[in-house]
Amino acid sequence: MVSRNRPRRSVLAVPGSSRKMIDKAKSLPADEIFLDLEDATAPLAKEEARIRVSEALTEDGWGDQIKVVRVNDWTTEWTYRDVTEVVDRAGVHLDAILLPKVSDPSHVQALDLLLTQLEKANGLEVGCIGIEPQIENALGLTNIDAIATASPRVETLVFGPADFMAGINMRTLVVGEQPDGYDRGDAYHHILMTILIAARAHGLQAIDGPYLQIRDVDAFRRSAHRTAALGFDGKWVLHPSQIEAANDVFSPRQSDYDHAELVLDAYEFHTSTKGGARGAVMLGDEMIDEASRKMALVISAKGRAAGMVRTSSFTPPDAGR
Ligand code: GLV
Ligand code: MG
Fold it and tell me: Which domain holds residue 238?
């Protein structure tokens, strides 16, 4: 599962029923692209979409995006054939399966077992295809720790706000915005934090869902900023115009990245024998210690994964001082 730790700042949803949109998506700079056999593909178009999606995965013209297929959920009659057809035809090109409406760990386990057979039958390394469970209902949120640990294939936990809002009767139709009449705080906070904490507890990525007003990129940015500030790793994008905004919002700011690298260098120097083997040291006006190093590591890892280059360097203080 080489995709486990790759950045997923922008996760582009592409309807599996649209050849044109799949072709366009291949060259877009989203970190992940998922071809959708679920809600963006009508029931009567699903069989054909399986073939189209599988063919598209095997074609040339892709960048180095993480390539994912969203199958239908286990309460439908489509899931097993979605998975079988796509992995048989294009498993070697697939990084992960996005599994919607996961409410119980058995959903992940069932997919894990099926993938193991398919990988063996197709001569693929067992475990090479990851699973991205979508948390889209109250039961899924209640069972989130069991879902997160149901299989070593799980790479991310993904929020599905549209289905979630419908499932809990939240009084809004505008996905990503606050319900009318809720004028204090953020109605999504509990759900978002529960997903984030479970992801961090189990070493997974936390991914925010879609913002549906696709023409309003500023509003998308605001929505993305909120979850990026909490610590989420990325967000779905439904339109090419949202990709750049997501990549930007979920990358560290240059000044934060530079500072994080500086903290790591300074801490390494001062804790070494040459630097005096100290534990808590000053970096300019700031006191840094082991906890500062841990915070800096997070920002540094995100910046490096996003290909950022530092614009300043650490100079050790003069020896003998
Ligand atoms: C996505 O699947 C959602 O329900 O928001
Ligand atoms: Mg959904």
Answer: 10-249
